[in-house]
Specification:
about 475 residues; Urease, subunit C, domain 1; TIM Barrel; 8-stranded parallel sheet; about 30% helix; binds zinc ion
Amino acid sequence: MNKIIIKNANIVTESEVFTGDVLINGEVIECIGRNIDCPDAEQIDASGRLLLPGAVDVHTHMDLDVGIARACDDFYSGTVAAVCGGTTTIVDHMAFAHEDVSLMHQVEEYHRLADGNAVTDYGFHGVLQLMNDDKLAEMRAIAEREGITSWKAYMTYGANMTDDEWLFKVLRNANEAGLVIPVHCENDAVVETLKAEFGAAGKLQPRFHPLSRPAGAEAEAVSRLLHLARLAGDAPAYIVHLSAAESLKEVSKARHAGQKHFGVETCTQYLALTDAAYDDDSEGLKAIMSPPLRRDSDCSAIWAALAKGGMIDTIATDHCPFTFGEQKQLGRSDFRKCPNGAPGVEERLGVVYSEGVAKGRISLPQMVKYLCTEPARIFGLYPKKGAVLPGSDADLVIMDPDAKRIMSIKDMHTACDYTCYEGIELTGRIEKVFVRGRLAAENNEFTGSRGYGQYLRRGVSSLI
Ligand SMILES: [Zn+2]
């Protein structure tokens, strides 16, 4: 067994920062302490460096087939990008099947896409579409067999959406079976109406994308979901990619009313980017995603909620890259035809550290909580993932907290041809990333191997 000892690191957990050593034995952390002596281990001096748990991204879309295009990162390039950016575990959201098939159909498809390709460990969220009673039973059976303990529902996206009747039934089923329901919250009727009206008026530039999906359409759906979850017996729901201050008000109402079993996710882009990205008719295509980027005041409100605590649980990415040179151009003359999504899995830790911790908006332990520990807890991976603890997987990131760099697609590993954060100056640089005890990235070079990533059968959520 290979042994590695990381000495004198500033170890960051969700609750504290302390200086110490971490001994890795094979794939796991054996012990943590001061002055650990282990002469047969490889020694790494991490003085002045941060040591974090490998980050967990519970919202990615590798190899996503949206019908008109396929996300340009597959499970290999996407997880290479992830690991170079300090993320050692992903939980990927499956694509719709685009036909009426059993829920197992996409599970098999995703094993075909990911197994033997991923370089980080990975799990899947199941996807719900065209629901019926058989599929309610199937959710439970697959959860048991495959460890897929979360099932995503969409409150928008036409024929694939889950309407209120089925959302209520799904939530009740989840409550009985101990499953979590991540939900994309936007009011479909509002979005479809506005899109049609902008189309009819010839308002087809990217700047009409955010206007067609207003913050209120998200807030209404967040509120409706939370009410449905409460009516289903305080069922475990999880709001994905919350983007707006108005939605936070609905979350706050439910929290204050004592609703307990729900989680809230935001994403890097809703913290660090604004709707100014749509001003340019061409470049604006890069930021077409749903929900759209919001105003500066929304970013501030989300940062404030993260700093205060008790409102938002996780920061993910919704990584769903399409090339600007080709795929995004489908929307050149009509924003409605642009495949929705942007890259983010490689950028997240660097941007959240720099914009959040280095700028004093959140603390280091808070960052670890939102990027590592809470996502692992909510999706049944803790304490194997998301923690620096004896017995946890040796998924670790060593970071220089003070180094400066400029983010540029030229230095990145995604198969995508752009980053939304091009040219921003970042504080902090990731030096080494370990996945289960193996060095997988060093100084922005991938050093792992295709297929090293293991499928994660996930357990019970902390929301239950
Ligand atoms: Zn998504």
